[in-house]
Every structure is written in structure tokens, then in C-alpha cells.
Amino acid sequence: MATAVYSHPDCLLHEMGRGHPECPERLVAIEDQLIASRIAEFIERESAPLAQVADLARVHTRAHIEFIERSAPSEGHAWIDPDTAMNPHTWQAALRAAGAAVAATDAVIDGRYDNAFCAVRPPGHHAEPARAMGFCFFNNVAIAARHALEVRGLSRVAIIDFDVHHGNGTEAAFAGDERVLMCSFFQHPFYPFSGADNHAPNMANVPLPARTPGAAVREAIDLVWLPRLEAFKPEMIFVSAGFDAHREDDLGNMGLVEDDYTWITDQIRRIAERYAHGRIVSCLEGGYNLSALGRSVVAHLRALAGI
Description:
Layout: E1 3-7, H1 10-13, H2 25-37, E2 44-47, H3 53-56, H4 62-71, E3 78-81, E4 84-86, H5 90-109, E5 115-118, H6 140-150, E6 157-161, H7 168-174, E7 180-187, E8 203-208, H8 214-232, E9 236-241, H9 258-275, E10 280-284, H10 290-305
Parallel strand pairs: 1-2, 1-5, 5-10, 6-7, 6-9, 7-8, 9-10
Antiparallel strand pairs: 3-4
Helix pairs in contact: 2-10, 5-6, 8-9, 9-10
């Protein structure tokens, strides 16, 4: 299978202060593991373009986009919420992150690649249509999914979110949209304290308690996600790929390991091969233990590439 990795050096320039867990070193750790694992020779590399405002506006309000653009400081940091800050490079990095997702979507739909992974930051799945939060400014996966539907003419897309935190921004963007099925699991109760109650019928949310091991996650996917995906028959699958449910990650308290990410990705790939011509675009979300993050991304990419 032809698998591409989209990234850009601009994504390394965004930082939120010393000691912040969502740091540039995350991408360095991924790159180091790609080289060490020798998987780099089996994947294609692509440079992430800048997203256009029109791309962002398919998900986000104009007021939100303008607020983020004008909030970028000329030096230092501007805090958007208690744990989310901009530096002078954040706007450009956020455009690269969203642009990677859109470009990967086009490349996969056009058949240049079977699937793609966007090694980008800032992440996106907490960004709501009118609010940045939780380290996120624009919702990269939601922007890509809306592009597939409204620009590329697909009729049904699925979004898989396996971050330890609920993707509240993605749910806010698509709740009630019959063209989209969102499947997620997340630790609950936990930030952002959403997703467990009163969700729309196109949301297949699986809240799980702290310390849930990989075996229980696999069982939940078998029982909840896979029947919904089989019935929905998506024409393309988008993945919010957060690796902070790993047992070594201190920002969460779940018990997954690399083999679990391989298994989850294999299930996604089988659904994509059955109904979506194999089309998958995955975007990095969480994952803050640098070693576990790099190893887990390698496992995810090996499964995507079928190696």
C-alpha cells in the first residue's frame, strides 16, 4: 500500500511555553522513531501546504478564524484558554496542520496514495466551530472531512477518534449530520467532560473508566464501532489519532500499548478496504510521553502501510 506522511517545519515553531506537554519535541520523537524503525523507507514524504481561510470556514465561524489570526502575538505568548497559548508562529503552524489534512484528503481521493498520516501540530479535535481549547485552534480532521463532503463530493465519511480525551470539537461540528458517523472511545470522567450523555444518533461514543486495558478497548470496538461502521459503509475514513491512552502517558490513565494501536488501525483499514477503496487520512492529536508516542505512531503507520 502507498502511504504518505504529511508534515512541515512550521509545525515545530509553535510552542506554548517551557514544560508544556504539547511541545515541538513530539514531532521530533516521531521522526526519530520513524528513522530508528526503518519504516521511513516504506513511506512517502509530503510537505504540508497552508490551508486557505475558505477551508477553515467550512467548519469554523469567520469570527473565530479572525480572532485566532489577530490573537497571534508579535513576541511571547497570548493565552486563549488556561492551557492553550499562541506564540508568533502559531497561526502559520495551524494553517499547515489544517492544510496537511486537506492536501492528504485530495491526494488519497485522487489515488496518489492509499492512505496518509499527518504528523502535524497544533492538534485539532477539541477546537469547536467558534472556540479554541485544549491545545487546539482549528479542527484539522473536521476540516478535512467537510472538504471531502462539500468539495470532493463524497456522500458518507466516518471519523474515528481514539484519543484519551473526547473529541468535543468534532462532535460539535457534525452532531446530527447524517453524512458523518463518528466513532470514539475516551476516558470518562475526564477532560473535556463531554461525550457520555445526550449525544446525537450519528455519534458512537464509548466512554471508558480510568485504567481500562487494551483488551477491554478491543471488545468495545468489536461490539460498538464495527457494527455501526459496517452498516454505515463510509466512502472515506478520517482518524483523530491520539496516542495518550498509552499506559506510559501521564496525561491520561488508560492501559493501551503499541499492539493495541496496531489492532485498532487494522480494523479501520479493513473497513476502509471493504467500503472506501482503502481511503484513510489520519491526523495526530494527543500523545505526550515522547517515547510511547513515537513507538505508537510507528505501529499505526505500519498497519496503515500493511508492513
